[in-house]
Design brief:
Layout: E1 6-11, E2 26-32, E3 38-44, E4 59-64, H1 70-76, E5 85-90, E6 103-109, H2 114-129, E7 133-140, H3 149-158, E8 162-168, E9 185-186, H4 189-192, E10 203-208, H5 211-223, E11 231-234
Parallel strand pairs: 6-7, 6-10, 7-8, 8-9, 10-11
Antiparallel strand pairs: 1-4, 2-3, 2-5
């Protein structure tokens, strides 16, 4: 488990072929409800991705476990080696090669941070090639619910122009806790966004996670003058 209610799953194609993807894309898991009605859920690929995936290589997803959720029942019932039906990859929630912005604002709550984890090698390359800063604003209720925090902290320590900002709505870590983070903020991500002075001349923003957060940040960014093409949203729900 990544957090008290979030599982980390590693998947590989059963035909041995690679499931290659562009960082930021997602897959869909297909299953049936108890009455036989077909259903599917979408999950961003969390794999740190810097190469063409080879045969047999696995990919990773994070899944929120919700009491009574049909997808939750599916994943909680899995054992190592079990099979699920999936399709993809899908989506265009990706870093664009033609971007010439000076800063990315990558904003997420909960499992919405997973596509940003997959983007880390691409961001490292872009920061090395051009004058680019990156800010990840990641919302959670408590420190223990921050996903892949160690990966983001380590990346920030190695890349001075990358900032990882945990935004905690209920509980801040104790100063001597291993979960303490110098850039942690108290409150919701949409409340912290104002402090980063979004700039339409410099910024491209990505939004992924809770739909209410996505909508609130979208409106706030528009209020700062960011045109819609510079605000890239992923609003699917993947936790029930």
């Amino acid at each position: 488990m990544l957090a008290p209610t979030i599982g980390h799953y590693v998947l590989a194609r059963d035909d041995g072929q690679p499931l290659d993807f562009i960082p930021g894309q997602f897959i869909q898991i297909h299953f049936d409800y108890a009455d036989g009605t077909p259903a599917r859920r979408s999950y961003s690929l969390a794999t740190i991705h810097d190469h063409a995936m080879g045969p047999g290589e696995a990919v990773e997803i994070a899944v929120s476990h919700v009491a009574g959720g049909a997808a939750t029942a599916l994943f909680e019932g899995l054992s190592v080696g079990d099979r699920v039906s999936a399709s993809g990859p899908y989506g265009r929630f990706c870093l664009m090669p033609g971007d010439r912005n000076r800063r990315y604002l990558l904003i997420a709550t909960g499992t919405g941070v997973t596509p940003y984890r997959s983007m880390l090698p691409v961001l490292a390359q872009q920061m090395a090639e051009r004058d680019l800063e990156v800010v990840v604003l990641c919302g959670a209720r408590t420190p223990g619910e921050l996903l892949y925090a160690d990966d983001f902290r380590a990346f920030a320590a190695a890349h001075p122009r990358f900032r990882y900002i945990p935004c905690l709505s209920r509980e801040m870590p104790a100063p001597d806790s291993p979960l303490a983070h110098a850039d942690a903020r108290h409150g919701y991500v949409q409340q912290q966004l104002e402090g980063f002075a979004p700039d339409p001349a410099a910024d491209i923003a990505y939004l992924c996670g809770n739909p209410d957060m996505v909508d609130a940040c979208f409106e706030a960014l528009k209020g700062h003058g960011l045109p819609i093409p510079q605000i890239r949203r992923e609003k699917y729900v993947s936790n029930k």
